[in-house]
Amino acid sequence: MMPEYTPAPRTQHSNSTAGYTGHPQASVDILGVQVHCVDTEGMLAQIAAWVDAAHSAQTHCRQVCTVNPEFIVDARRNPEFAAVLARADLRVPDGIGVLWAARMQGVRLPERVTGSDGIYDICKRAAREGWRVYFLGAAPGVAQHTAEILSELYPGLRVAGCFPGSPSDTSWPEIAERLTEARPDILFVAYGHPRQDLWIDRRRHELPVAVALGVGGAFDFVAGVTPRAPRWMRDLGLEWLYRLIRQPWRWRRMAKLPVFGATVLAQTLRRPRA
Ligand code: UDP
Questions:
Q1: Residue 17 within a domain
Q2: In which domain, by residue range, is 131 found?
Q3: Rounded mean pLDDT of 191-202?
Q4: Burial of 40 (0-12, 13-18, 19+ CB in 10 A)
Q5: Which residue has a Cα nearest atom 19 of ligand 1?
Q6: Average pLDDT for 173-201
Q7: Contacts for 113 with CB less than 8 Å, ≥ 6 apart
Q8: Separation of 194 CA from ligand 1 center, angstroms?
């Protein structure tokens, strides 16, 4: 049975959707995945609109996917993942490779919108708006530590709960019970892709939350379990290189990046010139 989403009472006045002009309808096709032309502000405004809508009517959970080149290569190989991405309500451009691929089609996306940075941006906004946030996933203790760090950074952040859980079906009854009790507005799910995105899609009509986002290893970054690339490397779009040096066992995953680049180039060369 679908647990009813009953939003918690607001503690602060919200004008969260005021001035929102971003619209997630505009998108660019990157190798078959429609990536929304949205920046961080646009994502926050969209989330705010969904949370506001959920506060005034019973709505279903909205899904946000942070699409990086690895997602796109995986989606080309895994039709189930491709279908989940297609059904998601918002697919944000996560990764310099996605921005580059859009540029190859003449579309200038404003910036990367990542789960690892997005978790800070969303919690900052949540503290201001009074949204309740829930941290689901990662190794035991990591979600709790993540919530503590973010609460310190953003005083007033309303943490609805933390739980590692697991994406397996056996874990669902306990997760459902905890979420129904906690009544979060925003659910961060850190099970890594594509697992987290498949899980949200599978459960979204039962999830008693306004918005659910897959955030991959973001809790590990916030909690300091995995070091994040220094700012200058991120600014140069070299985060992938830092990850490869620090976590060489990820090379097999990183090997998808040249596949992505080569496929984008091949497609660009095949495209008829205007
Ligand atoms: N994880 C989890 N349960 C699982 C599988 C993974 O909680 O069954 C967590 C893992 O502890 C880590 C995150 O999911 O915190 C995966 O991080 P990764 O950087 O690999 O995410 P990706 O880049 O694949 O999205």
A1: no
A2: 27-270
A3: 98
A4: buried
A5: 217
A6: 98
A7: 38, 39, 40, 43, 66, 92, 93, 94
A8: 10
